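Hi all, posting the design record for the shared folder.

TITLE: backbone redesign
STEP: 1 of 1
STRUCTURE INPUT:
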């Protein structure tokens, strides 16, 4: 099976701007597939089942784990989050850019599953107080949820050296242009090519 697409992973603290950046990227890369995760967390206002996440119950999620349906899964902020296998493999076979918004643990597991295809980007605000402002400004989470997310943020930022690229999202326009460069480079990785088939064509 030849997988000719590329994987782009976005991680970073909640509120850093991953969804905002993804929306910009989606306009420039029509041939992409956003990996829709499954989660047991409550739906936020404006979120749609099957678009932002597949919102499922804890029982359904645990059955999925037991049936081996997830490429990777993790418990984040007391909820389950996971990536289904089948659609990701199909999108890679169709030469697509497969975009993930997953946490640090998910990134490590994805890199293990697809080491040749994965490019990873860590997104963060310039500092913690700006993160707090943005989480408050988003207006989607209550105070206690925001406090949990802020508490987890420092640990997440400590994982930054595990990533290929860092985007400090101060100006959204600048951060978007950096992400577009990285997404284009993801398709130029030498490791995407299988040497044997490359040489067969090259020698013709
Ligand atoms: P994430 O997906 O990482 O949780 P969001 O994309 O939801 O983060 O962004 C969190 C909040 O910050 C949103 O209200 C968004 O509009 C805002 N935001 C994102 N990027 C910027 C930026 N560069 N400057 C100011 N506000 C931003
Ligand atoms: P949120 O609740 O803000 O949408 O997401 C919380 C965290 O869960 C974020 O760090 C996000 O990247 C992560 N996340 C979302 N989907 C997945 C997934 O499928 N797997 C893993 N490991 N993390 C995920």
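Okay, here is what came back for every position:
SEQUENCE:
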């Amino acid at each position: 099976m030849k997988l000719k697409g590329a994987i782009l992973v976005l991680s970073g603290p909640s509120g850093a701007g991953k969804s905002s950046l993804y929306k910009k990227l989606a306009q420039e890369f029509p041939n992409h597939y956003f990996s829709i995760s499954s989660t047991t967390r409550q739906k936020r206002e404006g979120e749609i089942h099957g678009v932002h996440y597949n919102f499922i119950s804890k029982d359904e999620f645990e059955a999925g784990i037991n049936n081996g349906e997830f490429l990777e899964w993790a418990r984040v902020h007391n909820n389950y989050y996971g990536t289904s296998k089948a659609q990701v493999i199909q999108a890679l076979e169709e030469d697509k850019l497969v975009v993930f918004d997953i946490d640090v643990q998910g990134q490590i597991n994805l890199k293990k599953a697809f080491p040749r295809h994965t490019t990873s980007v860590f997104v963060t605000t310039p500092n913690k107080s700006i993160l707090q402002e943005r989480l408050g400004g988003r207006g989607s989470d209550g105070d206690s949820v925001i406090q949990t997310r802020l508490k987890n943020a420092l640990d997440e930022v400590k994982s930054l050296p595990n990533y290929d690229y860092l985007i400090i999202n101060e100006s959204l326009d600048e951060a978007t242009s950096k992400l577009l460069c990285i997404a284009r480079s993801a398709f130029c990785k030498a490791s995407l090519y299988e040497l044997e088939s490359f040489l067969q064509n090259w020698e013709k």
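COMMENT: Strands lie at 6-11, 32-34, 38-39, 54-55, 70-76, 79-84, 97-101, 118-124, 165-168.
Let me know if anyone wants the other runs.
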